[in-house]
Write a structure and sequence with these properties.
Layout: E1 2-3, E2 6-9, H1 13-21, E3 28-31, H2 40-43, E4 48-49, H3 58-68, H4 75-94, E5 109-110, E6 120-121, H5 128-138, E7 144-147, E8 150-157, E9 163-170, E10 175-179, E11 182-185, H6 206-213, E12 218-219, E13 224-233, E14 236-240, H7 243-247, E15 251-253, H8 273-285, E16 290-293, H9 300-303, H10 305-313, E17 319-329, E18 332-334, E19 346-348, E20 353-354, H11 367-383, H12 411-422, H13 428-439, H14 443-446, H15 456-477, E21 501-507, E22 510-516
Helix pairs in contact: 1-5, 1-11, 3-4, 4-11, 6-15, 12-13, 12-15, 13-15
This protein binds succinic acid.
Succinic acid (SIN) binds next to helix 7.
C-alpha cells in the first residue's frame, strides 16, 4: 500500500497547476494513465482568456461568458473567474511562460468566437497548451511523485462515505492501493465518447464515472460542446483548426465559395460555437461539404503552425474541409469554488468538474483559464488544511473478488451511436434508442462488480458507457434547446428551464435522480 497527502488523478493544466502551487511539505502522488504530456491541455491551440486589453474589463468578460453559457452559469463563480484571470496571466508571464508578444512588447491579444474584445493570450501561435504544460512541468518540486501508465479503477470510499484513496493498475497489470486524505480528480472530459472529436485518445470520461460510483453529484451532463472546425478528411475528423484562425480572418464557405454564416448571426464566423457547429452540421447533412477558407491570412504557416502541420499531413491547403466534433463537457462532477465535491475527501478540477462557470456552453479560451484558476485555488486550500489530517487511519482495503464477466460493446460502437443519436442534434427518439442500447449492457450488474479484475480496455469501455448513460438521460430530461444541448423536437429555449439543473447521485447502488430549481 502506498501513502500520500494528496493524490492527483490526471496530468493536464489543472493537475499541474495544483501540483506546482501546493505546499512543498505535502507529499503528492500524480497518476496518469498514459504520459504526462498526453492530455487535452497539451493539445490546446487557442489560449487563455483574460480582460487585460486597454478598453477591456473583467465585467465585459463576465457578460460574454454568461451570454455564451445562456445564463445557466453560476454568476458568482463567473465573476470570480473573470476577476482572477488577469492575475493568472501575470503569474504565468512572470514565471517565464512563453506567450506571444507584439512589436511594442505587450502580450498579443487574439480574438475568438463570442468575445466582445480581443482578449486571448496565446503562445507559439496555436501551441498555447503545450507552452503552459511544459512551463509547469519544469516547476514541479521534489514533493511530487509521478506514476505514468497507471489507471485508476476505483475510488476507495469508507462506510461513512469519505473518500480515502484509489485502487489503480499499472501497465504490467499490477494492482495498487494508494491512500490519502485528499483525492483530486483532474481527468478531463469525455470527447472520446463521440466518433468525431478534438480530444486526446485518453479522454474517455473516466473521472465522471469514478466520481459517480463513489457517490458524487454529477451535474449538467446534457451540455456537451461541439467545436465547429475539425479538419475532415476521408470521412474522419483529424484534429482541431483553432477558432483563432477565424479570429484572424478565415471564413466558412460552401463548395461554391458562398459565405456560410451570412444572415445566420451578427458575429458571422465568430458567432457562438453551438450556432456555427449546428450550421455546419445542417449543411453536411444536406450533402454540402463546408470549408474553412484561410487564403486571406498572411503567414498562415508561421502564425498557426499546428493547424498548418495538420493540413500538410492531410494534403490540404487554402480551403480546409471541416466538420464539427465533440470538444468540451460543460457538465461533470459538481464542485464548490475551490473544487470540493459532496463526497468528503474528493475534489474535482478542470474539465471533469462542473463549477458552474461555463453554463450551457463554454466561451472560447475559458477552459485553460478555469484549470489554472481552480488548480491554484485548490492548492492554496489544501496547503492550509490541518496537518493532523495528513495521517490517514489504517484503512480497510478492498479484497479481490472473483473475475467479472460483463457483456460489453466495442469502443467504436459507443462512439458511433453517441455521435449519431446524442450528438450535435438530438431528439426524444434518438435519445430513447441510445438509452435502451446502453441499458442492454445491464448497468445494474456493474454496481456489484469488482472492476479491478478488468483489462484497461474493458474498464475504459465500462466508464464510457456509464458517462454516456449520464449524458443521454440528462439530454432526454431537458425538454428544450440551450447552448450545447440542441433538441430538434424542442428547438427553442424555454424560460422555465433557465435556472434548472439536472443532477444525479448514486447511493448504495441505487440511482437517485433529482431536479434542482
Ligand atoms: C480553439 O482554439 O478553437 C479552441 C479553444 C477553446 O476551446 O477554448
Amino acid at each position: 500500500m502506498r501513502k500520500a497527502d494528496v493524490i492527483i488523478v490526471g496530468s493536464g493544466i489543472a493537475a499541474l497547476q495544483l501540483a506546482v502551487h501546493i505546499s512543498r511539505r505535502l507529499h503528492v502522488i500524480v497518476l496518469t494513465k498514459s504520459k504526462m504530456q498526453q492530455s487535452n491541455s497539451f493539445l490546446a491551440q487557442g489560449g487563455v482568456a483574460a480582460a487585460i486589453g486597454e478598453n477591456d474589463h473583467p465585467a465585459s468578460h463576465f457578460q460574454d461568458t454568461i451570454e455564451a453559457g445562456r445564463n445557466v452559469n453560476d454568476h458568482e463563480a463567473v465573476w470570480k473567474l473573470t476577476a482572477e484571470a488577469p492575475g493568472i496571466i501575470q503569474d504565468l508571464a512572470f514565471n517565464n511562460c512563453q506567450f506571444d508578444y507584439d512589436r511594442e512588447g505587450s502580450l498579443h491579444l487574439g480574438k475568438e468566437g463570442a468575445h466582445s474584445h480581443a482578449r486571448i493570450i496565446h503562445g507559439g501561435g496555436d501551441q498555447t497548451g503545450r507552452r503552459i504544460v511544459d512551463g509547469l512541468l519544469e516547476k514541479l518540486g521534489s514533493n511530487i511523485q509521478i506514476y505514468e501508465d497507471e489507471s485508476v479503477y476505483e475510488l476507495l470510499v469508507q462506510e461513512d462515505g469519505t473518500c480515502y484513496g484509489v485502487s489503480s493498475k499499472s501497465k504490467n497489470g499490477n494492482m495498487h492501493n494508494i491512500v490519502a486524505p485528499h483525492v483530486v480528480l483532474a481527468t478531463g472530459g469525455c470527447g472520446q465518447l463521440f466518433s468525431f472529436t478534438s480530444n486526446a485518445q485518453e479522454v474517455t470520461g473516466d473521472g465522471v464515472a469514478l466520481a459517480y460510483w463513489a457517490g458524487a453529484r454529477i451535474k449538467d451532463m446534457e451540455f456537451v460542446q461541439f467545436h465547429p472546425t475539425l479538419l475532415f478528411h476521408n470521412g474522419k475528423t483529424r484534429g482541431l483548426v483553432s477558432e483563432a484562425v477565424r479570429g484572424a480572418g478565415a471564413r466558412l464557405v460552401d463548395e461554391c465559395g458562398n459565405h456560410l454564416m451570412e444572415g445566420i448571426h451578427p458575429f458571422l464566423d465568430l458567432a457562438p460555437r453551438h450556432v456555427v457547429a449546428q450550421t455546419i452540421f445542417n449543411s453536411i447533412q444536406k450533402g454540402c461539404q463546408i470549408y474553412l477558407d484561410v487564403t486571406s491570412i498572411t503567414n498562415f504557416e508561421q502564425r498557426f503552425p499546428t493547424a498548418a502541420g495538420l493540413c500538410a499531413q492531410n494534403d490540404v491547403q487554402g480551403r480546409i474541409p471541416v466538420a464539427p466534433g465533440c470538444h468540451f463537457l460543460m457538465g461533470g462532477v459538481e464542485t464548490d469554488h475551490v473544487g470540493r465535491t459532496n463526497v468528503s475527501g474528493l475534489y474535482a478540477i478542470g474539465e471533469v468538474a462542473c463549477t458552474g462557470v461555463h453554463g450551457a456552453n463554454r466561451l472560447a479560451s475559458n477552459s485553460l483559464l478555469e484549470g489554472l484558476v481552480y488548480g491554484r485555488r485548490l492548492a492554496r486550500y489544501l496547503s492550509e488544511q490541518d496537518p493532523s489530517l495528513f495521517f490517514p487511519k489504517t484503512p480497510s482495503l478492498p479484497t479481490p473478488q472473483s473475475p467479472v464477466c460483463l457483456k460489453l460493446p466495442s469502443k467504436e460502437e459507443i462512439q458511433r451511436t453517441m455521435m449519431s443519436r446524442v450528438g450535435i442534434v438530438r431528439n426524444r427518439d434518438s435519445l430513447k434508442e441510445q438509452l435502451s442500447w446502453i441499458e442492454s449492457f445491464e448497468l445494474n450488474k456493474w454496481m456489484t462488480a469488482d472492476f479491478r479484475q478488468l483489462t484497461k480496455t474493458q474498464w475504459e469501455t465500462v466508464a464510457m458507457l456509464q458517462t454516456s448513460w449520464l449524458i443521454t438521460t440528462a439530454a432526454l430530461e431537458r425538454t428544450e434547446s440551450r447552448g450545447g444541448h440542441y433538441r430538434s423536437d424542442f428547438p427553442n429555449e424555454n424560460k422555465e428551464w433557465e435556472k434548472k439543473h439536472l443532477s444525479k447521485t448514486l447511493e448504495k447502488r441505487t440511482a437517485h435522480e433529482s431536479v434542482q430549481a
